[in-house]
Amino acid sequence: MSIPGNRGSYAFAAVLIVAFLVVGLISYATITKGPATTTVQNTFSTVGTGSLFVTPDQLILNLGVVTEASSASEALQLNSQQMDQVVKALKSVGLNNSELATSYFSIEPIYMYPKDAPPVLTGYRASNTITVSTGLIVKAGEYIDGAVKSGANRINFIYFTVSEQKQKQVKGDLISVAVEDAKAKANKALAPLALEILGVQSMSISDSGFPVVFLKREQVPSATPILPGQQKVTVTVQISFLIGTK
Predict the structure, then answer these.
(1) Which CATH superfamily does the domain covering 42-55+165-211+230-245 fall into?
(2) Quick one: which of 48, 105, 166, 238 has the most CB atoms within 10 Å?
(3) What is the pTM of this model?
């Protein structure tokens, strides 16, 4: 005698049993799976420096001509004549057009301000300023003397700096020196502990920039040699070394 309804119940029960077994296996696998292991790396950080005294190889000189007259056209004409003489004088001592550039030009009215009365126009002022940028720094005094004698009446500033090409070379050399300095310090500190450098975790570089010898207008003497001197440049590196036992 067969009982059809019971066969369906048995099949359903078998499916439930299989399902519970699968869930149980998954849960077991999840529970028994442990966290991934990580290796702790020991590090040692130190700072290294590299310094060098650098002689500037670039001169920047800013000078100009200021003229005044009763009319704007007259002020401009006077200014143009004087500036033309200044440029000729600068070229006569070795400068060329690529080393000269106009940095400022203006024509403005001049007013007198009487008490309890409206301003009174008294004339016009023309200003023309040029910037000299050259590697012939030994002639700084000649440039100033020649310009003043030929009509320049404004020496705004003069400074010595380092050209971009020389900056790259110096910084590259100092980075190597600073890294070696940091490595030497680390080795000296690790040796008594029976440790050694295995690698580098991170490194950062900073530099002090290239200082400028800057002279303002009132500091620029006439007919006196102007010397660039030397400036100290420093590059610093901070390195985090990976370390381990010897």
Answers:
(1) Protein of unknown function (DUF541), domain 1 (3.30.110.170)
(2) 48
(3) 0.62
Could you give the CA distance from residue 207 to residue 167 in angstroms, rounded to a whole number? 11
- Amino acid in position 41: Q
In the DSSP assignment, the letter for residue 120 is E
pLDDT tens over the chain, length 246 residues:
444 555 555 554 444 444 444 444 334 333 344 455 556 689 999 999 999 888 888 999 999 999 999 999 999 999 999 999 999 999 999 899 999 999 999 999 999 999 999 999 999 999 999 999 999 888 888 899 999 999 999 999 888 888 888 888 888 899 999 999 999 999 999 999 999 999 999 999 997 766 565 554 444 444 555 667 777 889 999 999 999 998
Distance separating alpha carbons of residues 3 and 168, to the nearest angstrom? 96
**Length of the chain (residues):** 246
- What whole-number distance in Å separates Cα of residue 59 and Cα of residue 144? 12
Q: Find the Cα–Cα–Cα–Cα dihedral 10, 14, 15, 17, rounded to 10°.
A: 140
Residues 143/146/149/153 CA torsion (nearest 10 deg): -20
Q: CA 181 from chain center: how many Å? A: 23
58-161: which CATH architecture?
A: 2-Layer Sandwich (3.30)
Q: Which two tokens stand for residue 132?
A: 């000299």
